[in-house]
């Protein structure tokens, strides 16, 4: 059976590539999603993506995905630092969870250092730019196939 990975993007990430390239890089969200889908499908995984600027829409997406997905990658964006609602919706899922941040949230304003997700995530990738999503996907696929090898 094909395993399904859900990728969620929080508010303003639809602006990637259009503003603040010095912090968030030059790639668009479309570029990132396409690269993730390509990599997942060549490894035999199904991958869906969803972006919203609205907390409730992200919660709805997580509720609809209940029992349908095997792993979740999330960049909650600004909701990282505020959202108990998204945290609770993620806790509905008994699946591996990887939190991704394009920038290094620990090197920026103090309020960005706290995440409502870090203690419920399987792992976190921060500060590696858009490639962090691909690294997170590789890690997720390895987790979902029980791979422990390093190559
Ligand atoms: O570094 C990350 O990935 C963040 O999750 C990005 C969020 C920020 O609030 C978090 O603290 C760290 C902001 C996303 C805003 O994305 C933009 C993209 C292009 C132009 C402007 C904003």
Automatic annotation (TrEMBL):
Question: Which reactions is this enzyme annotated as catalysing?
Answer: 3-dehydroquinate = 3-dehydroshikimate + H2O
Q: Which GO terms describe its molecular function?
A: 3-dehydroquinate dehydratase activity
Entry's EC annotation: 4.2.1.10
Question: What keywords tag this UniProt record?
Answer: Amino-acid biosynthesis, Aromatic amino acid biosynthesis, Lyase
Transition state stabilizer (site feature) positions: 19
Under SUPFAM superfamilies, the record lists: Type II 3-dehydroquinate dehydratase
At the top of the EC hierarchy, this enzyme's class is lyase
Q: Which Pfam families does the record associate with it?
A: DHquinase_II (PF01220)
Catalytic residues at: 24 (proton acceptor), 101 (proton donor)
Where along the chain is substrate bound?
75, 81, 88, 102-103, 112
User: What biological-process terms (Gene Ontology) are attached?
Assistant: amino acid biosynthetic process; aromatic amino acid family biosynthetic process; chorismate biosynthetic process; quinate catabolic process
Q: In which pathway does it act?
A: Metabolic intermediate biosynthesis; chorismate biosynthesis; chorismate from D-erythrose 4-phosphate and phosphoenolpyruvate: step 3/7
What function is annotated for this protein? Catalyzes a trans-dehydration via an enolate intermediate.
Q: How does it assemble?
A: Homododecamer.
Task: Give the family from UniProt.
Answer: Belongs to the type-II 3-dehydroquinase family.
How is this protein named in the record?
Answer: 3-dehydroquinate dehydratase
Species this protein is from: Desulfobotulus alkaliphilus
């Amino acid at each position: 059976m094909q395993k399904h990975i859900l990728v969620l993007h929080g508010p303003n990430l639809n602006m990637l590539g259009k503003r603040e390239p010095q912090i968030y890089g030059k790639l668009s969200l479309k570029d990132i999603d396409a690269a993730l889908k390509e990599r997942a499908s060549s490894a035999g995984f199904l991958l869906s993506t969803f972006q919203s600027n609205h907390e409730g829409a992200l919660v709805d997406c997580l509720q609809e995905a209940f029992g349908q997905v095997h792993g979740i990658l999330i960049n909650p964006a600004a909701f990282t630092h505020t959202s108990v609602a998204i945290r609770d919706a993620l806790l509905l899922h008994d699946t591996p969870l990887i939190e991704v941040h394009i920038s290094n949230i620990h090197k920026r304003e103090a309020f960005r250092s706290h995440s409502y997700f870090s203690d419920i995530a399987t792992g976190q990738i921060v500060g590696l730019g858009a490639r962090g999503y691909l690294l997170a996907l590789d890690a997720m696929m390895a987790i979902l196939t029980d791979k422990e090898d390093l190559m």
